[in-house]
Records
---
Amino acid sequence: MRTYVVTGGAGFIGSNYIHYMFKKYGDEIRIINVDKLTYAGNLENLKDVENRENYTFVRADICDAEAINRIFSENDVDRVVHFAAESHVDRSIKDPGVFVKTNVLGTLTMLNAAKLAWENPDGSYKEGKKFLHVSTDEVYGSLSNPEDYFYETTPYDPHSPYSASKASSDFMVKAFMDTYKFPANITNCSNNYGPYQFPEKLIPLMINNALHGRDLPIYGDGKNIRDWLYVEDHCKGIDMVQEKGRLFETYNIGGHNERENIQIVKTIIQTLREELADDDPRKQHVTEDLIKYVADRKGHDRRYAIAPDKIRAEVGWYPETTFEVGIKKTIRWYFDHQEWMEHVTSGNYQKYYEEMYADK
């Protein structure tokens, strides 16, 4: 049975990845979910897998070398999928230090622990061991020409403390691959959306605010462009890179779903109105009148767009979910899981760990 260590597995993409892997592999794999459970880590995301015999949750900080080394010494770890990171740009502008600590030093801790556990006396590595570092398209900076795209060869040009910290973590992984021939890959993805996303991010924030008749704040003129990737497509891409990707390579995972932020918000409003019953009192206030333009974010990149040509050619991955389909699936999920949203926005989800694990 292959053993995976998934860092940040209680977060948005990490929890979706764990669901995807159990759906695909069932009892053929074992997953150890390592998460510090900061504000964005929510064990309620994994209620339906928490009692599986091949699933283990470990509450640990990826910067805690002793705790991370213990996980590797007590388990024969085959794969690491490293999601754990501080990821919200606005928070990074207010407190860059937290991002450097978690994203850079935490990544170094994970690399050191895996290297120590996997390296043979002659400097080679045990067969079948792989480390996958999940990064972002924001490390490439901003695109001004509408015909340009980010490729794996695009020079790094991060503009926010968040993207600078992720670029630094990427370079640390690259250094381990180059210096030690450490068996790793890097993936850089575009903006993810889908179930279990913490409602500080654009799509769940707008869904939640609209349903409660609150303002829908849009930075600047609303014309900043992002490439949107349905989270399950991303999870599939990560798995395919681990199985088929060439070691030491970087693969860009993009959605080919470019949209202006204002387009995203208007699509959410339109889709909500289609989904809400005519007699639902919320329908009357879900209109474009809720849109409010606010002062632009500092250092706000204008456009991101990934060309996933390499991963398609070498691995066979491509984005299967169009935005039109994905946004409806996402909105329906939030409709069906309104209790989850209430717990997240009220902070009650943070009690779940104590309720589930206090006596274990």
---
Amino acid sequence: MSAEYATPVSKEGLEATGSAITSASAASRGSRPGGTAGRRAGIILLGLIVPALILLAWHLSTASGFFRPSQLPSPASVLAAAVDLIERGQLATHILISTQRVILGFLIGSLLGVLAGALLGLSRLADVLLTPTVGALRAVPSLAWVPLLVLWIGINEDSKVTLITIGAFFPVFTTLYLGLRHVDRNLVEAARAFGVNGVRLLTTVQLPAVVPALFSGLRLALAQSWLFLVAAELIASSMGLGFLLTDSQQTGRVDRIILAIILLAVIGKITDALLGIAERWAVRRWA
């Protein structure tokens, strides 16, 4: 374009344009939290539609007599069972004991899974030596460990936490091991070219590269921990949600069985949501 057709831009015009862009950007940033909060609230409400429909179908099926109370008690009966346990001071104890067992087993199993996954994922020799054995142990059903744990550890709290630890170990180990195996080798070689090796290479390059995979394993491990809880509380337990399930089965309290299942689902979802918050923070921070 020739010079006579170029539109002259003054210093004042540039400053005004820059000010407008800055104001628009600030306004956009200011509107994001509200927009994000609105979207999250909408997602939560959409997620509640199916549970509400299930609750409605449950109420209608019991009110119409389609299910007998001995088969499926009404929502009101389950709520009355919860109120009765609260008044007895038992429900909070069941929840707290089970949650404590899950958290302890999950933390120990996840830590061991990270250590083993890092070892086998980074060392070719350890991979060749240990991967077949770990893969075989992973195929052992959870209930198969119960008699051995009772024999070795006894029927105390340690055996229950150990069983949950076993359940939490393998998802974390597997996802971290596979994630480290698939880290971009060019990225690793570039880091080594700048003198980054050993533990520093693991913490600054390799682990940040597998943060999403690691948290996928952690969330699977948390779900496994709640699954293994019921098996763990079969080991001569006198409290806990797993005990509440088995005790209610023996006494024919179907309302308490349904209550225990609902509590396991709700608490499991809450703990998974908390881990999801940590995952989003970690991905923004390191990934």
---
Amino acid sequence: MPTPDLNLLVTLDVLLAEGSVARAAKRLRLSPSAMSRALARLRDTTGDPLLVRAGRGLVPTPRALELREQVGQLVQDANAVLRPAERPNFKQLVRSFTLRTREGFVENFGLGLIARIREEAPGVRLCFVQKTNKDSTPLRDGSVDLETGVLGTTTGPEVRMQALFQDRFIGVVRPGHTLSQSKVTPAKYAAGEHISVSRLGLKKDLVDQSLEPLGLERQIITIVGGFSTALALARASDLIATVPERYTGNLRAGLHSFSLPVRPPGFTISLFWHPRLDADPVHRWLRGCIREVCTGQLPDPSAGRMESFD
């Protein structure tokens, strides 16, 4: 069975409303002959004459009368579907979003984001899940709506992204640690006992690569999978944690933070989402809220004294 031409629904709706080929043609900005051909196609498609001559005018057949209300509603529904989405009523919006983030994001930006969301859309719920890898599958299959992190080689090529903020690595030790009492040189830094943070258990990272040209190497005592674990160990020992500055602001409360005596490359924390949600008005609003909170975030004054030796 051939696929019907759905454009004929609009033509049929106007013909039934006007009851005249000439008036219908004028309304649709077609020539009378083009409208007559369209009526002929409608008759072939429906198997019914639809409009028949009665004196000098046309009258609908019983089948046309049967279709008139149904066709009109179909055309209205189609117009509504193709019309740009209206701004949602955020006060009445009830919806949940899942955000996949690495530890530190919720601790530093979570409260601000929740407050920002509740202010405008109290019915929106945020669900934060732990990011254990950079695989884009959760974004593709819809189990995750948004995620934050650093662009990686495993990030899907179709995934959309927008930068949130720049970050850099810093050193963190307990108050009273020898590195908190004097200028930190590359040699002093490398000579300490270090905690390496790696989800994959890797021993060396960008900081180690920055020390190599100086002939220095960190003494890695332990490898952990997250920033909070590294900072907890540093808080209770003489171990040195090297973590992202902005991403761990609140996690570093009460600790001593210092600029590294070497300059490993900085990095960009970005927001990622699947293109199928790109135009969704509520999703776009949520992305804007996240950008607003992240770009407006100020350093926490309780996050430990920060000394710079640049």
---
Amino acid sequence: MGLARSAIVLCLLAICALTAHAEMINTFTLDAAGWQISGPPAYDFGVAVDAVGTDPNGQKYAVIEIDKNFRDGPDPQTGVIPPIVLNFTQMGDGSAMRLFIDDESVANLTGVSWRGFDWVLMQNGVATFNQDLTNVGGLNGFSVAPFSQHQWIVSPGMDNQTLAASGGVVPAGSTFQPGAGPGNLVIDIQPAGPWPMSFSLKELPIPGVSVPEPASLAMMLAGAVALWRRRK
């Protein structure tokens, strides 16, 4: 009887563990675009297809929007905010070979301000950022406001590309909306890649310096004044 109960308990624990693990991954199937995107749970990640079409060269494209919620604050030891990684997997031969990320809604629920934001394309030899069509900050380009600066970075030997935005602040509790306006973040997929092709897009906020609350700041100032008087 004891062994039977133990077996039942172990089975229930295994089922709960599998269920919890399944809830940690959310998958959106973009049938019209021919891609599947997996990422964090549904309450932290969403994606929608705005349009699918064919350009004058006969290349299929898709325009998508992405919503993300960053909830975890910086790691106490490294100071790094955990990134959100979106994994793209091809569903068939008719998938779009150019993806336009029209705009994003990125909620800063991390408790700290951000002084920068990185898009890292982990491409597996399959995908690349189209810098010319993205045209960051241009008249019709991909907006990274409130950031005023950007840099394209290629990591030698790592098969990674990074768009790094800086020169601004996204306050804690606010929403960052890259791409708001006419521009897009453009990703080109190489048609000669192995099927099913896959690549990942990692998005990573760069934390800024935490500003003390007024009460904490007042205590710090009072302590500094007391120390100054003692030294005098």
